[in-house]
Amino acid sequence: MSTSGMIDVLPLSPLQEGLFFQHLYHRDGPDVYVTQLVLDLSGDLDRAVLRRSWDAVLTRHPHLGAAFVHEGLDRPVQILSRGVVTPWRETDLTGAGEDTDAAVTKELDADRTRRFTPAEPPLIRLLLARTGPARHRLAITSHHILMDGWSVPILVRELLTLYAAGGDPAALPLPVPYRAYLAWLAGRDTEAAAAAWRAALSGVDEPTLVAPGGTPPATPRQTGTLLGAEHTDALVRLARLLGVTLSDVVQSAWAVVLGALTGRDDVVFGVVTAGRPAEIAGIDELPGLFINTVPARVRLSPRTALSEVPARLRGQRLDLEPHEFLSLAEIQAAAGVGELFDTVVVFENYPSGDPGTEAGGLRLTGVHGTDATHYPLMLAVVPGDRLRLRLDHAPGQPAGDVLAALVSVLTTMTVEPDRRLAHVDPFGGQSRRLLEERNDTEHRVPQTSLTGYLEQALRRFGTDVAVIDGDQRLTYEELDRRSAALAAELARRGAGPERAVGLHVSRSAALVVALLAIVRSGAAYLPLDPQYPAERLRYMIDEARPALVLTDGELPDGTPALHLADVPVAGRAPAPADDPASIASIIFTSGSTGAPKGVAGTRAGLLNRLAWFAELQPFAGNEALLAKSSISFIDGTVEILQTLVHGGRVVMADAATAVDTAALADLVARHEVRVLTAVPSLLLALLDEASAGPPGRLSSLRLVLSSGEPMPAELPARLAVQSPDARLVNFCGCTEVSSESLFAFCDAHDRSIGVPLWNNRAYVLNGALRPVRTGVAGDLYYGGAGVGRGYVRRPGATAERFVADPFGPPGARMFRTGDRVAYRRDGTLIHLGRSDGQLKVRGVRIEPSEVEAALTRHPAVAAAAVAVRRPPGGDPLLVGYVTPATGTVPDPADLRRYVATLLPPALVPSVLAVLDRLPRMPNGKVDRRGLPDPGPGTTAASAPAGPREQVLCELFAEVLGRPAVGPADDFFGLGGHSLLATRLIARIRSALGTEVTLRSLFETPTPAGLAARLGDAGRDPLEVLLPLRDVSGRPPLFCFHPAGGFSWCYTGLLRQLPADQPVFGLQARGLTDPARVADSADDMVAEYTRRIRALGAPGPYSLLGWSLGGQLAHAAAARLQAEGEKPGLLVMLDSYPPETLPETPSLDHPEILRLVLREYFGVEPPAGAPLDTAAATALLRAAGVADLNETHVEAVARILPAASAAARAYRPPVFDGDLLFFRATRGWSGPPPDPRAWQPYVSGGIEIHEVDTTHGRMTRPAELAQISAVLRPRLPGTA
């Protein structure tokens, strides 16, 4: 914009700053803050006088013609100038006939939808439309940043007064300048205001949003209603009785509706304040933007009466009134929450334009227009004899329902002001009716006991195989006989209803026998995982007090035990009384008090779960299920029982196999497993393994059950590739409700947590235990058949989480899960997170206090906290934070080992960080959001010692979601765990084509240690023919070194090419001995082709090279042809014939070293510092980019100029074949070289693919991924 005529530069008011931000943020589409005021005029209109009158208005108030700029400034400013001309357009619509109104609407709409450019004043334009004889409409279209609703009547009054005076500015007194208001703002105490707002909003930890995902910019729609005069009078009387304003009453009703709409009992919404300080004389007659939007907070306790809310709101408003000048952005910053609300209430109690006003023969017959907001819901309240309520709303918002709910609450306030909020239902029972419809899950279950249900199956399937445990097979007959004998022995030793029997048995067929025996004895099974620490097992036994413990191993001293070796092989006890309400299991979960809690599940709940599964997946014959889950989780026992009652085969995975994805994939293939249960992260690791190995290993799967973690977006599609006939079911539930309560069939487009199982119910409730509306977040409660009895010997914890079910039959209870969910319109549920401090990692529920209690038991720890952190691209990690006890320095590795003796593996933090102090909130609680992310943990002083080590470092980093990992970094110390380990093993097998086991990773969990274990220890990474991936199966790919002599740059290909593709690198022979640097290209090529042929690998060979390597690959291809070989594929990465290469100046030794450091290792040597071989070697080691000694560095410094000279002197032969060429498109100082320069040297065609990169980056991972996508299908041996 031009600065000529500039008269002032002013800051922006608080709301102007907000509106300016909205304009910049939403640059595309309609600007919702373009407003339009329309005046209906009748009489003889003098258009010239009207225009002169408007010009006078703009001259009086130059801020209405301001430009708004921000480029190059710390904060935006508004620039006021003289002579700003308002765009003025006239149109005659009298010829439209009966369509005049439609024509007018079209013109006005078109004018309103045109955006303004803030830097190009004025942000206002006028349209005068003639609509009939002596009838006109004047549309004043402007941006809201200029003026507020209070300004409308001022503007109209001034315009008509000036018109009556013929446009003479003297007809009106001089106004107060807008600068006076901005000066008043500048004198306010912003620190005191911020402190006041911070205190008022203390405890608000999340926003109150009706549209959490936001809404796209769109012109708001309007829905309104007019209250009756009697209703309005009743509201006014109520306000007087309570000593509040009518605005306080309406805002209170809005808060109640908002609570029901969002499911929150602590709501925040925006309130528009007039913002015109009484201290400034004449400000009430000044058009401009003075209003501000500030938060109003209302706590909605169920015990609060409706009549109490307005007084609280009034008290809060009066306390904050002196601080209402602060901008919303500053208030939000003080509160520390970010966005606070997305609904606003505005009370339009300013003077209105007065239809009927006459001026100079012109009569104002109507004033109307459109307001502006970007909020999805804005309630405008217009007082009068009949209160008008208008909702400006984004498309898709349930405005009609919301407005009806508001009227309902306002009615209740006048009729029954003392009604408690717990008994106020703004939406008239809609949510309750939906809750009942969505929980119509009643279904008849078999009329038998749990024991009878199992025994029927054992006898029905007789000689069919029931259990496979390695080479051992158990038929249903054998399982029946052995479990009956053990059940009889258990009964003889005191087992029976309401007693527990411990199950301390390794994963084997004996585990299945023992589980069935406990159930048949009438007792509850108590899983005691043999892999748990002894202290944990002792605690569980002491808490559950089992009659005895079945074991095949060692138990803590004093435990009443029955060893499986001592069990008789025959005997049958009479069936015990099988009360459905008696306990079926005691499963321990992580405890909020620092100790685990035992959940008592009922036999009725377990029977219902097993019967429901029969309908979900009827077993066709003797189909197999892979049992791999730990028995410490309820899924581990349910997956066994649900298979047996339907005649399937239980394929037992032992403890080692259960965490080894390769072994699991082999088991699935060997036994044609149909059903598999696994958490999503393990499924992804299993799919990684399947894609890296022989095809079809998972093709037998028909049903995959997954729970415990959010469903990853890519899982359904990836499963469909490996298991095309499998259905994927997403389960949601918990131990307290007999495993799963919700289920959903998943695909790539729908990953909801579904709907309830048979006879189960799922409620989404607010803090008053009232149902919330569709799409509103609420707390998830489970009711119905699956609800357990409670926590063993924990009445307090039971009463807290197992509460009376107001929607079920008398005496029913429901379980409060702590999950936040919402219903979708189709009746399915989506998961939104947790409402308590409970964490979940890899499907395991974790109470932070239990882990923190274990950490603080260590003598070196003063305080501890835990949190879940997800590194970019990685899986969630449980991170522990500790502060040292006085005089100590905790060692993280030692601390992890210590905690592992107290907690199950899933509860041991993956990463431990030592802090000086824990961050805390003002109330003294640990601020978990303030806990830092764990550091990368990379050992910078160390670098890969070879290409295999380099690949392993890259794979470690990829799987762990870290930017880099050093050779000495510990996989588990950086947050690795068993599921990530299986994923890493699959990636290593695929990239290196070598067999590697989980055990080797656990024993040597560093890239360097693993590389040595895989065979790098005795191999020279600088040898001429370097096996990057030495496997058999396909003709090999040979990659030729660039001028620096190394072929390590091609390791990135290994992750992109098939796992059975052999890859070898050709390296300069002088790397290990500078005296043996080759003198010519012929010399180099002769050496390389000799080694290729000596390898004896089957052809046809593929040859690839980058830069100089491309020339060498071409020469080697021609030489191999001359020697009778048949190269299959010649590939160049940005390599050109010698004659196209520019002349390069000769460099001295230090200059060559600088070039080597910069171009080949990305290390920038210090400017001006002397550089020799020793200094260059030290720089490389300090940067951690190469493990080279001085001999190696000196060799590279000799190879580089020698190879470059050899390349320029070389004259290429003709290769009889095609060339596949990848060309770098960026980074050339002049015209880029043309790949077609190779045409004289190849008899076939040249296929060119452009890569958006520079020459020097052609072998970076992203570029190699793009190149490999083209290369992969061209390699010989590819089907």
From TrEMBL:
<dbReference type="InterPro" id="IPR010071">
    <property type="entry name" value="AA_adenyl_dom"/>
</dbReference>
<keyword id="KW-0597">Phosphoprotein</keyword>
<dbReference type="Pfam" id="PF13193">
    <property type="entry name" value="AMP-binding_C"/>
</dbReference>
<dbReference type="InterPro" id="IPR042099">
    <property type="entry name" value="ANL_N_sf"/>
</dbReference>
<dbReference type="InterPro" id="IPR020845">
    <property type="entry name" value="AMP-binding_CS"/>
</dbReference>
<dbReference type="InterPro" id="IPR023213">
    <property type="entry name" value="CAT-like_dom_sf"/>
</dbReference>
<dbReference type="InterPro" id="IPR029058">
    <property type="entry name" value="AB_hydrolase_fold"/>
</dbReference>
<dbReference type="InterPro" id="IPR045851">
    <property type="entry name" value="AMP-bd_C_sf"/>
</dbReference>
<dbReference type="Pfam" id="PF00550">
    <property type="entry name" value="PP-binding"/>
</dbReference>
<dbReference type="Pfam" id="PF00975">
    <property type="entry name" value="Thioesterase"/>
</dbReference>
<dbReference type="InterPro" id="IPR020802">
    <property type="entry name" value="TesA-like"/>
</dbReference>
<dbReference type="GO" id="GO:0031177">
    <property type="term" value="F:phosphopantetheine binding"/>
</dbReference>
<dbReference type="InterPro" id="IPR025110">
    <property type="entry name" value="AMP-bd_C"/>
</dbReference>
<keyword id="KW-0596">Phosphopantetheine</keyword>
<dbReference type="InterPro" id="IPR000873">
    <property type="entry name" value="AMP-dep_synth/lig_dom"/>
</dbReference>
<dbReference type="InterPro" id="IPR006162">
    <property type="entry name" value="Ppantetheine_attach_site"/>
</dbReference>
<dbReference type="Pfam" id="PF00668">
    <property type="entry name" value="Condensation"/>
</dbReference>
<dbReference type="GO" id="GO:0005829">
    <property type="term" value="C:cytosol"/>
</dbReference>
<dbReference type="InterPro" id="IPR009081">
    <property type="entry name" value="PP-bd_ACP"/>
</dbReference>
<dbReference type="InterPro" id="IPR020806">
    <property type="entry name" value="PKS_PP-bd"/>
</dbReference>
<dbReference type="Pfam" id="PF00501">
    <property type="entry name" value="AMP-binding"/>
</dbReference>
<feature type="domain" description="Carrier">
    <location>
        <begin position="943"/>
        <end position="1018"/>
    </location>
</feature>
<protein>
    <submittedName>
        <fullName>Amino acid adenylation domain-containing protein</fullName>
    </submittedName>
</protein>
<feature type="compositionally biased region" description="Low complexity">
    <location>
        <begin position="936"/>
        <end position="945"/>
    </location>
</feature>
<dbReference type="GO" id="GO:0044550">
    <property type="term" value="P:secondary metabolite biosynthetic process"/>
</dbReference>
<dbReference type="GO" id="GO:0008610">
    <property type="term" value="P:lipid biosynthetic process"/>
</dbReference>
<dbReference type="InterPro" id="IPR001242">
    <property type="entry name" value="Condensation_dom"/>
</dbReference>
<dbReference type="GO" id="GO:0072330">
    <property type="term" value="P:monocarboxylic acid biosynthetic process"/>
</dbReference>
<dbReference type="InterPro" id="IPR001031">
    <property type="entry name" value="Thioesterase"/>
</dbReference>
<dbReference type="GO" id="GO:0003824">
    <property type="term" value="F:catalytic activity"/>
</dbReference>
<feature type="region of interest" description="Disordered">
    <location>
        <begin position="923"/>
        <end position="945"/>
    </location>
</feature>
<dbReference type="GO" id="GO:0043041">
    <property type="term" value="P:amino acid activation for nonribosomal peptide biosynthetic process"/>
</dbReference>
<dbReference type="InterPro" id="IPR036736">
    <property type="entry name" value="ACP-like_sf"/>
</dbReference>
